[in-house]
Design goal:
- This protein is mainly alpha-helical.
- It is 75% helix and 7% strand.
- The chain contains five helices and two strands, in the order αββαααα.
- It has a two-stranded antiparallel sheet with strand order 1-2.
- The longest helix has 33 residues.
- It is elongated, with a radius of gyration of 20 Å.
- The relative contact order is 0.14.
- This is DNA topoisomerase IV subunit B.
- Keywords: Membrane, Transmembrane, Transmembrane helix.
Length: 165
Amino acid sequence: MYYRFGKAFHFLSVLFFLVSFLYIYSALPEVVTYELNEEGVGQKFMTKGTFFYSGIIFFLILNLILITPGKMIENQSTPNFKRLFPTGDQFRDYILTWIYSFVGVINVSLSILALFIHSINNQNEIASGDFAFFFYLIPIFFVVWIVALFWILFKKFNSIQDQDQ
């Protein structure tokens, strides 16, 4: 049941990424700076089209790779998944929720990274210091979700141990 919230969060994060990425893409100059030196001068560049296509392709590949295990567990596609996460098991619901919400966190993080690229290229409109709080959210999100994964796995292994005894 909870995994539906994870799926909804994943879907909303996909929409959020697409809308924010398209907005940021439209505001970028023809030559996009993605690295600055110590003086704040652009050091590495790419064209606007390269930024767009590489960003969308990276987003699609990352989402496909990370959603695949969740879909495999959900569809019970392998005997190992059927045995480890049977239908009706609460840990199946927890792990599916974790997978879908983790991909959602990745998508939000990619949106924040695109915002960073936008702030580098539009220093007169937006300073990267104005969004420093958002940049610190990325590692916090990852730490919280990884701790949650270990908690789910710890609980699952304890339940398997209790069944064996």
